[in-house]
User: Fold this.
Amino acid sequence: MKLFIDSADIEEIEIALKGSIIDGVTTNPSLIKKAVEKYRGRSGKGKLDMQTYIEDILRLVGRSRPVSLEVAGTSYREMVREGKTLYKRFNRVARNVVVKIPVNPSLKLDSVSDFDGIKAIHALAQEGIPVNCTLVFTPEQALLAAKAGAKMVSPFAGRVDDYLRTKIGKKFGKGDYFPAHGIVKGKALVEDNGVISGVDLVAQIAQLFSLHNIQCEVLAASIRNPRQLREAALAGAHIATAPLAVLKQCTQHEKTVEGMKKFTKDIVPEYAKILKP
Ligand code: G3P
Assistant:
């Protein structure tokens, strides 16, 4: 089971690396925007060289840990061109670039592209470029992406839960826990075409891949709290990606703090003495 940090903030990535807890990094255009705004604001000059910034991240993360970089285009041609450009421009830095392609780049709900995302995944995979297929909300999207040659698929667990709660008008905070076994409205389970929670989506994809021996990693994304991370891991995710705050929360428990307080209080001088070099 691998853990990635979901961040484009180089300071956050460095903290996670120093904590020896991450095996890779995922970014997306929204995370890049957030990081750019933070560092531009800080320098006060409004300048940040994007190419150098991304290269610094790749170098810091290092060769054995994949870093997902997303395309911006929404057509097959644009996505393939941008995917190849990203890979050519950045993979030389630390040989760790994975190109992120949306499973369906359509910007309209009622329009169906001619498999642009799937075709782009296939074209890039044929060139030996590793692809992380993003914005996955159904097992069948994951199946098509895997068949096209994606190395990883990213079900957006937290956003599934947002969607289900919004459907029934339930108020929630971004980090709130959503039960893996779903929620009930009236007598019926709230569901989205047979998916009852983000973790359930992860579980269904993991089961589908395992049943058919599909060699594609399930990367549980949009993880909002430690319990969701745990449940995604138990559901069979090969990787979970989470923001630094959630990774930090994974070490917390009030009884751990209570125990630490008691142990530090009970240290007798003789014991303290033998701990000294
Ligand atoms: O990994 C996908 C992620 O960046 C989306 O997370 O919390 O914005 O749904 P979130």
Notes: The two ends are 37 Å apart (CA to CA). The chain has a mean pLDDT of 96. The beta strands are 2-6, 24-26, 67-70, 97-102, 131-136, 152-155, 184-185, 188-189, 217-220, 239-242. The pocket of SN-glycerol-3-phosphate is lined by residues 6, 26, 28, 31, 156, 158-159, 221-222, 224, 241 (CB under 6 Å).
